[in-house]
Amino acid sequence: MPDYGRNLQFGSFVTPLNRDPEAVVDLALLAERVGLDLVSYQDHPYQNGFLDTWTLMSWVAARTTSIRLATNVANLPLRPPAVLARAAASLDLLSGGRVELGLGAGGFRDAIAAMGGPDRTVGESVSALGEAIDVIRGIWDEGNRSPLRVKGRYYTVDGAKRGPAPAHELGIWLGAYKPRMLRLTGAKADGWIPTINYVNSPDMAESRRIIDEAAAENGRDPREIRRVLNIFGGVGRGTEPWQGPADDWIERMLPLILEHGFDTIILGSDNPSDIVAFAEEIAPAVREAVAAERAAAGTPTGRVRSAAALAKRAPGIDYEALPAPLAARAVEPGDRGYAALRSTYFTAGTPGLVLRPSNAEETAAALSYARAQGVPFAVRSGGHGISGRSTNNGGIVIHLGAMNGVEVIDRERRLVRVGAGARWGEVAQKLAPARLAISSGDFGDVGVGGLATAGGVGFLSRSYGLTIDHVRGAEVVLADGRVVRADAENHPDLFWALRGAGAGMGIVTSFDIEATELGDVIYGRFAHEVKDLGAFLQAWGRLTESSPRELTPFLVVAAQGGRRIAHTTVLWANDDTERATKALEAFLNLAPVLDQQAAITPYAAFMAPQNNPQDGHSGPNFRSALVDHLDERTTGVISGMFDKGETGYFQIRTVGGAVNDTPADATAYAHRTQNFALAVVPRGSAADLKSWDDIDFRGLYPSFESHAQDSALSKAFPPATLERLRRIKAAYDPENVFRGNFTILPATGV
User: Fold this and answer.
1) DSSP code of 164?
2) Coil vs helix vs strand at 472
3) Distances 402 to 268, 366, 423, 650 between C-alpha atoms, Å
4) Alpha carbon distances (Å) from 575 to 98, 160, 482, 568, 608
5) Three-state SS for 678?
6) How high is the pLDDT of residue 2?
7) Which residue has the higher pLDDT, 240 or 430?
8) Are 735 and 743 in contact (CB under 8 A)?
9) 93 and 101 in contact (C-beta within 8 Å)?
10) Which residues pair with 521 in a beta bridge?
11) Which member of 125, 557, 666, 744 has the lowest number of beta carbons within 10 Å of its beta carbon?
């Protein structure tokens, strides 16, 4: 009888009694504190002595940080599957991927009917459960743009919108005992969750055989199905089975795992001492014994994918060679989480594998593995990826999103350690209690890693400077797999290059950044109707350059219904309302005002995360330029592009001010005379936008450039800067491993 080799889990089954709700929650907190993997709850909505299971799980999710939560099992007849799917996915998203869905066909027919539920026979309940699984899976299939239609006898969904998708591959575990339910488990479910006392006819061996045969008949590997077993008892409270000392538990549990294939054992007890003993004595001993048996028997372990998922693997990637620490979190084209990770916000991609390392060492392993494959690889910090270079087709993506920590490591020095996988909205929220902020792009979903290696133009630019101007150190994975610290004393040449050309030098996994003191800010938003675009842009530019440094305005000009509407967003970097009002009011005189607003708000609210889906909705099509002034030549080119229909969307981000206080040779971002960063979205291809080359270029900002022509590199980096970068590249990446983002060729003969 098989051991399926799945990782072991241990959990608790807590009775959701409503007479002392806090005691129920305390047992979950205890289970987390002693290291159990999950806590589960029965679901009997007709039981007036119980708390509602979904309300309880939501409360427990908010009170805990790591333990997973499961229904054991949800009462399907009283929880419509489309609504249940959204409830489970929502709680999974809110809890950071900590929910599993145990699901039952529904016993206690009279009680269900008394609550207004359907009165179904056993056979009808099984059929309804099969239909419900289809509905739930369909709702979770957010990447499928077609409306969901399931036309069953018991559940019909006709044109429902799909989503949200859960945060992780949320499992559906069926509470099954009889042959028909067991066959449904093998055909459709992710797990089997019986209670040991009820597995008798058929017995464990026969139940396992039925599930495995049904799985094989449906093209599934039986190892895909998690086997979860509820055991009710107490530790050291008697001589009966599951009432004896810890050693007896261990001896009895080993055959359940090694012979019957169970991998998750859940203790049903509301006694705190049982939970502690189960977690601290029994679980570790069982893990150790099973590991030894598996090693001796050569039992394959690790994640199991379905035949359908395996068929979607990309050629040229040796999936079986993936190191174990990476394999557990890796996402392939056949995985349910693939749709949320394949693309960036702007760029659609179809990578063959997405690796999600959780620290620098795993990132080094991911890089080594990616280099050994015969496919391209890209590095993604988790933000928008406007340049289109952080995904690919058929290759590997190293996704840094798991490294998203934000920690104030020295409040006196305002020094903050930020993971490269964080987004700036998250950073702003974490720093708000300390009244600190870091200049962080123009949107809360912008990723830290891309911004803090390319430059860091944001709404604090004129008062604070670029993000890179305040980076004090970085943890970097080099091309050869070494993990090094780069700062003014350690690898200073690499540290110089990382600040402006970091994507070409290594994979930065964390930054130490000096924040600025900042609490409330004042923002303004204005909409102007523009008749003479060139004249408006010149006036807007002069006003910006003459404004106090506390003011940083950004501009978007869009063609809307035959009109040109200029949208200005202004941030004043403190709460001095008197000076801010004077500076903001000056923008009202630029052109007829269609709309205006201003308010005092915390910076964290202004830079709030949006959590927009990364579904590649636009595609990479941007051109950029840095200019000293919005002069007649520059504004004439922009106005002409609108006149000729070459674009309908144009942006200006202001730099200057504190940005230009930093010497040009202090970082690899050498553009310290310019006041404006321009970006345009061509209506045709970026390469065909010939008018753009008529602008008086003083450089360009790589993060807003999707055009790959050779001249773009020389505009991004002046000759002396580029030559220095090539020498550093030769020292740290002589084989040009990091060539996917503005390729800097290593110098030769050095």
Assistant:
1) P
2) strand
3) 33, 13, 11, 33
4) 40, 46, 45, 19, 18
5) strand
6) 86
7) 430
8) no
9) no
10) 601
11) 666
3-class SS of residue 212: helix
Q: Is 675 helix (H, G, I), strand (E, B) or coil?
A: coil
Question: 149: which 2 tokens?
Answer: 């239609």
- The H-or-E segment that residue 566 falls in is strand 563-572
State residue 439's pLDDT score. Answer: 87
Dist. CA 211–CA 216, nearest whole Å = 9
Q: How far apart are CA 675 and CA 636, in angstroms?
A: 18
Amino acid at 378: A
Question: Rounded CA gap, 566 and 582, in Å?
Answer: 20
pLDDT surpassing 60 at residue 1: no
Lookup: tokens for 443: 């949107």
**C-alpha span between 470 and 511 (Å, rounded):** 10
pLDDT, residue 709, reads 60
Q: Given phi > 0 = left and psi -120 to 50 = alpha, else beta, which region is 231?
A: beta
Report the distance separating Cα 510 and Cα 417, nearest Å: 7
Contact 341, 316 (CB under 8 A): no
Distance, in Å, from the CA atom of 685 to the CA atom of 494, rounded to the nearest integer, reads: 35
Burial call 689-726: b when 16+ CB within 10 Å, e when fewer: bebbeebebbbbbbbbbbbeeeebbebbbbeebbebbb
pLDDT tens sequence across 148-206: 999 999 999 999 999 999 989 899 999 999 999 999 999 999 999 999 999 999 999 99
Predicted confidence band of residue 269 (pLDDT cuts 50, 70, 90): very high
Closest CA to 459 of 361, 394, 544, 566: 544
Contact 673, 661 (CB under 8 A): no
**Of 300-309, 418-427, 538-547, 737-746, where does mean pLDDT reach its minimum?**
300-309
Tell whether the model's pLDDT for residue 710 goes beyond 80.
Answer: no
